[in-house]
Amino acid sequence: MQQVKQKEKLKNIIPFIPEGDFYFTKGIEAFQKRKFELAIKWMNKAIEAKPKETLYACQLSIIYTEIGQYHKANQLLTNILKSTTYVDCYYLLANNYAHLGLLNDARKYANLYLEKTTDDEFKEEAENLLQLIDIGENDDDGWELDHEDELLIYQETAFYHMENCEWEKVIPLLEEMMTLFPEHKTTKHDYAHALFFSGYEEEAVEMELELLQVDPNTLYCHTNLALFFYKLNKKEAYKANIQALLNVYPIHEQQQLRIAITLVRTGYYKEAYQRFCMLSKGIVTDQLSYYRWFSVAAFHMGKTFKATSIWEEGCRKYPQLSQEKSPWQ
Question: For a tag site, which of 58, 114, 240, 292 has the least CB within 10 Å?
Answer without folding.
Answer: 240
